[in-house]
Write the structure tokens for this entry.
Amino acid sequence: MSPRKDQILQKTSAFCSVGVLSGDRGTYTYAVPESFFPEGKKIPLRGTRVLVPYGKGRTTGVILEDDVNPPEGMKIRPIAEVLEPFTLGDPSWLKFLEWTATYYLVPVATALSTALPPALKGREKTEITLAENARDTELGLRFLSAFGKGATTWSGLESALGVSRARANALIEDGILVLGSRPNTKAAPKTETHYIYKNDVAVHARAHVEAEMLAFLRHEERASRKDLLQRWEKGAPAIKRLLAKDAIEAEEVPLGAERGAELQRVDKKFELTEEQEKALKHITESKEGKASLVQGVTGSGKTEIYLRLAEQCLAEGKNALLIVPEIGLTPALLGQVRARFGEEAAVLHSGLSPRGRLHEWWRIRHGVAKLVVGVRSAVFAPITNLGLIVVDEEHDDAYKQASGLRYNARDLALARGALCGARVVL
């Protein structure tokens, strides 16, 4: 839990415009504290996710422009925190979202909110705790009975203790309750712990598991915690002792692609027909940023052309995007993708958990995943160095989003291809 610091005066050296990802999703001017710039050197902040004061609380936002002129005669509040040391996308991605907002007549923050995983947007969650010196009071005893040493919310106070928000604010001012917030979700992948061999150390003669584990790591150089505990079921204490002795060190390693039980590897690579060869040659010889249309009935071999194009794209050092209708995201297609591209493929679909979606988003943003396969919302994926966009069954109504930001993924794919110079195949 972190205390609020909105009212602390900070030296500011610049101002920026921020699109807030909740409320009216408007764009507002905020001051940039000098502490954001190490050694006084200004760095580009456009595209960075930040925490900003908004109304009576704080919310996440994205810096859209840095070094702007502030409006005159208004009190400008400072940015509270930079949430990640990297931008949410490269300049072409942000330019594409700004184009989308202009085309569909919505705020830029609305397009950003549509593009980002749920975990990276929204208001900061408020938490209210009991002050240490108030535990023996009547309210303190009731609070501990209801919530223990944990925290609650405004509505929790009112429903459990009958304390209204106005009364709670008075208790906060009197130092009986403490207002804070939960840390915001960081844009980070799922990880697993690996242990790396460092030094030989003395091991007690009876510590057989510890000695065996150290010898194993000396030979293998590194291993995951999962592997070690599979080999030595009661090995956790041995790992703890080896860490304390500086014999090994721990490292958090990002996990690979999100998988489902249906994602079976099916490695089928067919000989191309004459018509497929012609289509492939025509597309590869077309100008970058231009669109091509592949016509063919179901089962005519269009998918093989798409996968061959993706292979060529990755071989050229660029990344690719394959968008399909939800009904087209079949186990057969995903199996072929996994077989050919392995960990370089990321699949975005409605079955992913919020944490799984954030993990795949991180893999795409950092270039770990070079081929993205997904439904209509995948058109917003933060792919860098995009060289190919494929929209399968481009006539399908599933590409039309009917709520929130109403868009057609086929149209946006054409626009994104033109903006970043990628070939588009329909």
Observations:
- The chain has a mean pLDDT of 84.
- The first helix runs from residue 91 to 103.
- The first strand starts at residue 2 and ends at 3.
